[in-house]
Amino acid sequence: MLTISNLKKQYSNKNILNGVELKIEKGEILGFVGANGAGKTTTLNSITGILNPDEGTIMINGLTASDDLEYKKQFFFIPDTVNVFKNVSGYDWISFMLKLYDQEQTEKLSYFVEQFSMEKAIHKPMGTYSYGMLHKMALIAAFTIEPPIIIMDEPLNGLDPRAVMTFKDCVKNYVKEGGTVFFSTHLLDIAEKICSTVAILKDGKIILHEDIQKVMGEENTLESIFMERQRE
Fold this sequence. Notes:
The protein is built from 9 helices and 9 strands. Helices cover about 35% and strands about 25% of the residues.
């Protein structure tokens, strides 16, 4: 599904990624965790083509960034900050996104709009949306498009409790239908409940990628595992 090999990135002579190695299989819900500055966002931006890594290879379903549009159609990316044209309505924005993925408006769109309680807002300019509403619209687009993998950077930021519950349900259903999820988060208790696997990034390297239940065992929490690994 997604393979990252020897990924390296440097900013101002400072190494951010130091040879990231990660393989995500179809059907995984991977929680990507790490301290601030560990390189999580840099990794995600490298996968999605926002940044060009200094070294390394990234493949999704056998395709690389050199495959251009076909590569980009393998994923939908939700960044930490969703930037949009402020005068465009949510409906028109999603319609445009669907066309990029060669899809038409479907009943799925109406379903997810209802699930995330955006019926009244979807025809309003996105410049009037709150931070959380922008994330809801991005999630609606992702689950409607249903690409092979959804990649997200802190997708739960700004979501109200009901939207978090909806997010959980949508992720589980999406994976049941054959999808894969890769998202970074600082909310370890949420990751513990949603994710099937966890990857910990420290000092620009993956120090753990394991089945979440296996790594926690019967007595540990994801938070305790994370803190233990940070002290090593």
